[in-house]
Amino acid sequence: SSGINAEWPLRPGDGVVFGADSRTSTGTYVANRVTDKLTQVADKIYCCRSGSAADTQAIADYVKFYLDLQENETNEEPTVEVASRIFQMLCYNNRDQLSASIICAGWDKTNGGQVYCLPLGGMCVRMPFAIGGSGSTYIYGHCDNTYKVGMTEEQCLKFVADAVALAMHRDGSSGGMIRLAVLTKDGCKRLNIPGNQLPTFWSK
Description:
Layout: E1 3-7, E2 16-20, E3 24-26, E4 29-32, E5 38-42, E6 45-51, H1 53-74, H2 80-93, E7 100-108, E8 112-118, E9 125-126, E10 129-132, H3 140-146, H4 153-170, E11 178-184, E12 187-193
Antiparallel strand pairs: 1-2, 1-10, 2-11, 3-4, 5-6, 6-7, 7-8, 8-9, 11-12
C-alpha cells in the first residue's frame, strides 16, 4: 500500500488532496489490482487505509456508523477531528488485535482542510501532510524535500501523484493505478491516473 494526504493551504484550510495506489496483495499474490483505498466516512471526510484490508474496512464502517449517528442527533456535519478521534479510539483500544494504519482527512467549517495521521498503535497527530503504507518508507525524503506550504491545488495534486508513483515504483506491495481526491467546502472531486499514464522519472 501507498497512501498520501496533503493540505493545500493557499489560504490556510482551503482543502486537502489525497491519493493512494490500488493494489491489495496476499503475500506475493495480487488479490485485487483496482482496490479503492480512499474510503468515505462522512460527506466531506475520507480516509486512506493500509495494513490488513479486513481490519481497516471494519474500522471505517464503525467510524461511518458513529459519524452518521452524530450527524442525525446534532443536525450538523461532523468535524475531521471528531472522525480522527473515533479512529484513534478504535485503533488504540484494539491495538493488539489490529493491523491498521489510517490517514484521516477532510474539510469542515470549523478548521477547514485537515490531515490526521494514525500509524500502527493508535497515535493521532495532525500534520500538514501524511504518508502511510509499505511504500511510504521509500519516499519520506522526497516528501520532506518537495512539500511546500502555500501550494496551489494543481501543485498539490502533482506532489501527491508523484509521491505515490515513486512509492509504487519501489515497493512490490504497491501498484496498479493512482486514485486521487480533492476535498474542499464544495465536496469531493475524484480523479484517476491509469497504470499506463503514471508519472515517470529517470527510469522511464
